Amino acid sequence: MLLKFAYQDFLDDRRFKNTTKTNIKNYEMLLGKFVDYCIENQVVNAEDITYSHVRQYLLNCQEKGDKASTINTKLLRIRAFLNYMVECEVIKTNPAKKVKKQKEDIKIDVFSDEQIRQMLNFYRRIKQREKSYVAYRDYMIIVTILGTGIRRGEVINLQWSDIDFINKTISVFGKSRRKETIPITDKLVKELAGYQSFCKQYWGTISDYVFVKRDNTQMTDNSLMLVFKYLGQKMNFKDLRVSAHTFRHTFCHRLAMSGMSAFAIQKLMRHQNIAVTMKYVAMWGNELREQNDKYNPLNSLDV
């Protein structure tokens, strides 16, 4: 089967299976480059892809500066494509299965209290000075992620009907495409209620969506990324990426530092596998040790 047709057939299959638009774009970008590499190297049929082709392509990516995490993501996309070729009986076995993932240097950045204050105060000043909707919206995006840990796609798809002000919950469609309910604090309920009142006054007719663009239409993934890009340029934090994921990691970090159980953190973060949660807990082990040394009950007992 011609590789270019196999690639398009794979994308069509993912669309038929209702894969998210974001994942489709990732396949187009990451897998598409591998397909281009194969064709450039005279590999025109899917059946002709070998272990060596996959490994050499990833080696080239590494030489161009790709980190281990990026290499592993590309490998997962290639494996998924070749698994589909096996399902379609185009090939008998998946040659990418023999390619081992690279070991990653695990480092997850989080914001400090001072950095969070700087970002929120930045938007507060603009909001008060200019009565700006965009500043208020961006402020509330930060507050909402810090208070719930919701993901980037969940932010842009959040609707007012998803917020239960009485029972203090937010409902989102998570990675599993299931509707999940997250508890929210009194403080976040108050912030969201104030923001809703502002939106009604500002727009007249309020949108279904909590966070909208300047024309009162739903934000896109790109428009949200631009929010964080702009904020990152203004803050200029050294070696720290300003993104929705960093805010989500900060939420998880504070839960772990508070002494919350891994099981409870898993539920709030909505990790399907507790091993993912444990990775975060283990990562902040030194800080947990400091907290333990400071607050351990044995400190106050004569033993």
Task: Describe the protein.
This protein is mainly alpha-helical and 303 residues long. The model has no long low-confidence stretch (mean pLDDT 88). It folds into two domains: 3-98, Tyrosine recombinase, N-terminal domain (DNA polymerase, domain 1, Orthogonal Bundle); 113-292, hpI Integrase, Chain A (Orthogonal Bundle). The longest helix has 20 residues, at 21-40. It has a three-stranded antiparallel β-sheet with strand order 1-2-3, with no helix packed on it. It has helices at residues 3-16, 21-40, 51-63, 68-87, 113-130, 133-148, 152-157, 186-203, 221-235, 244-257, 262-269, 274-283, 285-295, and strands at 163-164, 169-173, 179-183. 23% of the residues are buried. 60% of the residues lie in helices and 4% in strands.
Low-pLDDT segments: none
Q: What's the mean pLDDT score? A: 88
Distance between the termini: 74 Å
User: What is the number of beta strands?
Assistant: 3
The fraction of residues in strands falls at under 5%
Can you tell me the CATH class of the largest domain? Mainly Alpha
Cα gyration radius (Å): 23 Å
Helix amount, in percent?
A: 55-70%
Q: Return the structural class.
A: mainly alpha
Order of helices and strands: HHHHHHHEEEHHHHHH
At the fourth level of CATH, the homologous superfamily of the largest domain is Intergrase catalytic core
With helices defined by DSSP (H or I, 4 residues minimum), what is the helix count?
13
Order of strands, main sheet, comes to 1-2-3
Rough shape?
Answer: globular
CATH topology of the largest domain: hpI Integrase, Chain A
**Main β-sheet, in a few words?**
3 strands, antiparallel
The CATH architecture of the largest domain can be given as: Orthogonal Bundle
